[in-house]
Every structure is written in structure tokens, then in C-alpha cells.
Amino acid sequence: MDHDVYDLYGVQGASGPYNGMDAAELSVAWQKSRHSNSQGSCVEFARLPGGEVAVRNSRFPDGPALVYTRAEIEAMLLGVKDGEFDHLVG
């Protein structure tokens, strides 16, 4: 499948954020939940300049980042707030 690739500033043909890229390649401010514990059991989120949201595992900060659209993150957060995923940790 052929995709147009844009960098973080919308320049076509440059490499931009993509799923599985090294999180260390993203120059962003990562945020973790205040409910995280000292053992690093959390995921971290970062808003990208194009509006997407990157997610990484805090135990592997240089590992892969997953990149989601704002709509995808919004749908996930609404599901979490509604308790749709409670069975995964219960």
C-alpha cells in the first residue's frame, strides 16, 4: 500500500511520526498519569504537532511509539470513562 508521508510540520516526502517508530525520535513532552507507580507501570502520552497523539511504555522510553489520531484517542478515553475496559484489569 502506497502512502504519502509527511513530517511533523506537514512537509510531504519527509519521514514523519508513524506506528512503531522509536519514541526517542519524537521531540515532545511525554505525560504520564499521576496514578502511575514508582516501578514505571504506566503508559505515557504526547500530543504531536499535527494533532496526533503518541503513546509509549514508560518502562521502555526509547522503545516503539504508537501514533493515534485525536478521534481514536477520544473514543478510547470515552470507553475508559464508561467502564468498557474494566474487565481487563478486574
From TrEMBL:
Highest taxon above the source species: Bacteria
All residue ranges annotated as the DUF397 domain in the record: 29-81
InterPro entries reported for this sequence: DUF397
Pfam families: DUF397
Protein name (database record): DUF397 domain-containing protein
Organism, scientific name: Streptomyces griseoviridis
